[in-house]
Design goal:
seven-stranded mixed beta sheet, Aspartate Aminotransferase, domain 2, binds glutamic acid, 14 helices, 2 domains, Aspartate Aminotransferase, domain 1, alpha/beta
Length: 403
C-alpha cells in the first residue's frame, strides 16, 4: 500500500471548492439548489479577452513560454502597479502563476521553513493556513471581531509576533468579510512590523485579488502605497480571476523583490512550468478596457449587495454588522440562532446551520469554520438576483422554523 506523507495529512480539502463542487453535483442531479458558495463572478469573461485568446490560437502561440511568464504581460503588470502605487517595478519583479493560489503556495514554498510562523488575521481565506502547513510552517491566527470591522489591530499584531514570525498576510478587500483596510490601518500595521526586533526578516504578503471590486466609491489601498519602506519585504499576490471573470483560465501573479520572484520561477520550472500560453496572451489584453469590466462587475455586485441587505433585515437572528466594502461576499453572523432547534436538530455552530440549510432547504452556504470563525456563514453575492431572492426567502423560512 502506498503511504501518503505527513504534509498531505496535515491539510484538508479546500472547503470553498468542495462546497462549490457539492452544489454543482446536486444541481446536475436535478435538485433545485440555490448555491451561495461561488467564489467566482457569474458574468462571462469579456469579449476582448476571448478574442485575444482566439488570436493567440490563430497565431500558433501554443508552445512553451518562459516559465516566469510572457514579457508582454509581466511588463503590463509592472506598469499597472507602478502607475497605481508610484513604484518602480520592471518585468523582473513579476511572475505569472496558475491563479492567485499558485502565487501564494509557491511563495510559501520558497520562503518558509518548517516551524516558521505565519500570521493570519481571521476571518481568513480558507486556504492560507493549509498552504502554510503544507510546508510545515505554523499558522498563527489572530481573531478580529466585527466591532473592529474585522481589521487587524497593531496591538493584536504585536502580541502575536515572535522571533519565529516569518510572514504576515494582509488580504484587502477581504474574503470572506468584504472589509477594506484604510490607509491609516495599513500605516499602523507597517509601523508595528518595523518596530519588531526581527522586522527585516518578516515578509508581508499582500493578497489583493479583490482590488478592483470595491463598493460605494471606496478605494483600495495597498500596504506598499502607505509604507514604501516595506518594498523589499513585500510580495503582492493577485489574479485576473475575480477582476475579469477568468477563474477557469488560471492566470495569477506575484509581484515582489527580484530574488524572490526568481526563486519562485526556479520552483515553477521544476513543478508546473509556464501557465497556459493562450491564457497568458488573453490576460495581456485584459487592461485594454481601462478597467471598464471590473467597474461593471463592482456595480453589479453592489446592486446585489443592496438586495441582500434589504432581505437580511427581514430575517430575525441573522446579522451583518460589517457591511462589505469590497469583494463579493457577505459574512453573515448566525449566533442569534444558536441554541434553537428544528426537527430535533440543534443549531450550535455555523456548520450546524449550514447543514440544516442544505439538508432541509437546498441552500448551500460556506460555514464560517472554513474561515476561522464559527459564528458566521459566508454568502457569495456572485449569484443572479433571482437566485439571491429565492435563496434568501428559503433562509427566511428555515429560520422561521427554528424555535
Ligand atoms: N477564492 C474563492 C473562494 O473563496 C474560490 C475558491 C477557492 O479557491 O477558495 O471561494
Amino acid at each position: 500500500m502506498i503511504q501518503l506523507n505527513q504534509a498531505i495529512a496535515r491539510i484538508q480539502d479546500s472547503p470553498t471548492l468542495a462546497l462549490t463542487a457539492k452544489a454543482k453535483q446536486l444541481k446536475a442531479q436535478g435538485e433545485d439548489v440555490v448555491a451561495f458558495t461561488a467564489g467566482e463572478p457569474d458574468l462571462d469573461t469579456p469579449d476582448h479577452i476571448k478574442n485575444a485568446a482566439k488570436d493567440a490560437l490563430d497565431k500558433g502561440l501554443t508552445r512553451y513560454t518562459a516559465v516566469i511568464g510572457i514579457d508582454e504581460l509581466r511588463k503590463k503588470l509592472a506598469d499597472k502597479y507602478n502607475a497605481a502605487y508610484g513604484l518602480d517595478y520592471t518585468a523582473k519583479n513579476v511572475i505569472i502563476t496558475n491563479g492567485g493560489k499558485q502565487s501564494l503556495s509557491e511563495l510559501f514554498a520558497v520562503t518558509l521553513e518548517p516551524g516558521d510562523e505565519v500570521i493570519i488575521p481571521a476571518p481568513y481565506w480558507a486556504s492560507y493556513p493549509d498552504m502554510a502547513m503544507l510546508i510545515g510552517a505554523e499558522p498563527v491566527i489572530i481573531e478580529t471581531t466585527a466591532s473592529e470591522g474585522y481589521i487587524l489591530s497593531p496591538e493584536a499584531l504585536k502580541n502575536a509576533c515572535s522571533d519565529r514570525t516569518k510572514a504576515i498576510i494582509i488580504n484587502s478587500p477581504s474574503n470572506p468579510t468584504g472589509s477594506v483596510y484604510s490607509a491609516a490601518a495599513l500605516k499602523a500595521i507597517a509601523k508595528t512590523i518595523k518596530s519588531l526586533p526581527n522586522a527585516e526578516s518578516i515578509m508581508v504578503v499582500s493578497d489583493e485579488v479583490y482590488e478592483h471590486t470595491i463598493f460605494g466609491g471606496g478605494v483600495h489601498r495597498s500596504i506598499l502605497q502607505e509604507a514604501p519602506e516595506l518594498l523589499e519585504q513585500t510580495v503582492i499576490s493577485s489574479a485576473f480571476s475575480k477582476t475579469y471573470s477568468m477563474t477557469g483560465w488560471r492566470v495569477g501573479y506575484a509581484i515582489g523583490p527580484v530574488d524572490v520572484i526568481a526563486a519562485m520561477s526556479k520552483y515553477q520550472s521544476q513543478t508546473t512550468s509556464n501557465v497556459c500560453s493562450i491564457a497568458q496572451y488573453a490576460a495581456a489584453s485584459a487592461f485594454d478596457d481601462n478597467l471598464a469590466f471590473p467597474k461593471l462587475l463592482s456595480s453589479e455586485f453592489e446592486k446585489r449587495l443592496g438586495i441582500l441587505l434589504s432581505e437580511l433585515e427581514t430575517i430575525p437572528g441573522l446579522e451583518l454588522p460589517v457591511k462589505p466594502q469590497g469583494a463579493f461576499y457577505a459574512f453573515v453572523r448566525v449566533e442569534g440562532l444558536f441554541g434553537k432547534s428544528a426537527g430535533g436538530k440543534k443549531i450550535s455552530s455555523a456548520s450546524d446551520f449550514a447543514d440544516y440549510l442544505l439538508e432541509e432547504y437546498k441552500v448551500v452556504v460556506v460555514p464560517g469554520e472554513a474561515f476561522g470563525d464559527s459564528g458566521a456563514m459566508r454568502l457569495s453575492i456572485a449569484v443572479s438576483e433571482d437566485s439571491l431572492r429565492k435563496g434568501l426567502s428559503r433562509v427566511r423560512e428555515a429560520v422561521s422554523k427554528l424555535s
